[in-house]
Request: fold
Amino acid sequence: MSGKYILIVDDDPDLVETVSMMLESKGFEVGKAYDGIEGEEAIKKRRPDVLILDVMMPRKNGYELCKELKSNKWTQEIPVILLTAVGEAVPTTSYSHADGMSVEAEDFIPKPVDAATLVEAVQRLL
Amino acid sequence: MESSSPLEDNRLGPSVCAPLAQQRLNLTFFTHVAGDREVLCTASHNGEAALTLLQSQADPAASLALQPGTSILAVYPHDKRPEVIGTFIRSLARARVVIHGLASSPSAITAVLSSSRIKPAVEQLFEHFTFPGYASPQEFFSAQAPPKEYLEKVVATYQEKVTKVYWIIPQSDLDLWGIHIATADILAGFAAALMEMGELGLAIPFLVALPGLGGQEFILSFSTARRQPGGADQGKEIRRVLKSHLPDLQPMRLTPVAGIFLHGPHFGDRYGIAHTLVTALAQAHISLLALSCTISTISLIIRQHELAAAQVILGNTFAAPVECAPAAARG
Reply:
């Protein structure tokens, strides 16, 4: 997978670190960002081959960022994996599996993330 | 809270972790060095209750102190680079803040400080780091918001019977270094030593610093990784760097040791996880040499020959994919 660039955006810095270690071990090049605004800036600097995006984040949440990317012709083709526990854990939230999967993103992986599942999802989207 | 006690390893669970877990008191920060001391943080409204509980279980020779009004300050990512950790410590030294505890996670270096000294500490950090999210300390402070209700709901749902973790990542071939320093002023020398280690390309996957009850004397414990797995021993090089910046100290080295990093959903917001871990290791007669719980990871250092057994025990204790990320072996 050399040369494929994966961007991880999550406000849990330890999660970003462990996911990036795992993806780097599979030969991916990995970028890191820690909230939606930072993620947006990182995408402007370098277009990722796959974006792994947490939903609940400060400043700009992943759902907002995903919607913006999908409504912009320059970024709408970036495959997005939404990574969150929200859909299962908080039924009152406005986020849901259905929105994540059918409307906004190419894939949806609930936390806790199984490492093999995540790598498989990334590889499937490349 | 600072606790100093000649605890045997197997007393850490019953004396410290168990009473807090039974009362559902979450540890937002927890560090331990075997046979010496602990520093832990609870929410401030739980401080007195935690102190009373620990006093009721404490060894007669133990000393306990409650430090009210503290905050945790974190910088990330450090990428295991000693120069980042060194710059963090140097910034705090320059801000003349008293460090009540210091610990690393896989991504972050965190310090426990008096809440009233957070502002000068953050201002110093902005002198030495750039933060993509914030152009200035003012912008940083204005962006700080109280936790939202939905986060509490999510955390509440995570109080499962068997604690889920995202990953249990082992890292072998480490050295564990211990330094006893007499005054906090020497921390600046340690920061300089870390900067030089950074220039040498060394990596630090684990670090804790625990002050004594007076706040002056410190125990520093940190692990270093070889540049390459199975690569040359760097012990002499590290000892030389430490001696050049801290000439009066006698660094102790234990090798080989291994690190295990447990990362889980909202580890920093839930009670009882450290207790589960410490109890499981004690029951398996695995000695815990040092431990840090900060951000969302529990990092522990054990003797290398106990690594395989510890992985099995932790895999059986937590609901986790027993993941051995090959990259974990890097610096």
Residues 86-102 of chain A have pLDDT under 50 and may be disordered. Helices of chain A lie at 13-25, 36-45, 62-70, 86-89, 97-104, 115-125. The beta strands of chain A are 5-9, 29-33, 50-54, 80-84, 107-110. The CA atoms of residues 19 and 25 of chain A lie 10 Å apart.
